[in-house]
Amino acid sequence: MTTSSTDLPLARQRSVHEFLTARGWLLDGADDPAETWFADDPRAGWHYPGSFGGQRMNAVSDTTPVRLQSYFTFDGEGDEVFCLVAAGNLRGSGCPEHDTGEQFFPFTAAGKVDFDRIAPLLDTLEPRARALDPRAVIECLYFGPCRLP
């Protein structure tokens, strides 16, 4: 039996979906990861709805803090990778505590996402995302970096 070139990426997408939804994450824009073209759609991915204590915010370009999120993307070498983005301000705006800081994870030798590396990081990022105050994050963005103790 031969496998098609789409079997591994689809299995990878489904495994990430199962892993993240078991932690309470939601898939953006679809119900089934097989219906999402992650590599072709920069908005496709998952988000953690508990970010900012679950508060809903109106989206204002370059102002609204981003929720804890993840997606498939390409690294600087053009290789597909898995990415996590912490909740906070995009593009290094404000202080290090409120910066998002993308983190890239190359696939394992078997072409899978390395959940053993990602799970401990999410154990830190999820509670942090829940505790973030969106007002404090926005004030950090507009009024300058926070003064950390």
Explain the overall architecture:
By secondary structure, the protein is α+β, with helices and mostly antiparallel strands. The chain contains 3 helices and 5 strands. Strands 1-2-3-4-5 form a 5-stranded antiparallel sheet, with helices on one face. The longest helix is centred in the C-terminal third of the chain and has 17 residues, at 115-131. The radius of gyration is 16 Å and the shape is globular. It starts with 6 loop residues before the first helix and ends in a 6-residue tail after the last helix.
Brief descriptors of the model:
149 residues; 5-stranded antiparallel sheet; 3 helices; alpha+beta
Q: Ends: how far apart?
A: 60 Å
| Pattern of helices and strands | HEEEEEHH
Average pLDDT, all residues: 85
Shape: globular
* Share of helical residues: 25-40%
- Percent of residues in beta strands? 5-15%
Oligomer: single chain
**Strand order in space, largest sheet:** 1-2-3-4-5
Poorly predicted sequence stretches spanning 5 or more consecutive residues: none
Q: How is the main sheet built?
A: 5 strands, antiparallel
Q: Number of helical runs?
A: 3
Number of strands: 5
Radius of gyration: 16 Å
Secondary structure layout:
Elements: H1 7-22, E1 26-27, E2 46-47, E3 69-74, E4 80-85, E5 103-105, H2 115-131, H3 134-143
Antiparallel strand pairs: 1-2, 2-3, 3-4, 4-5
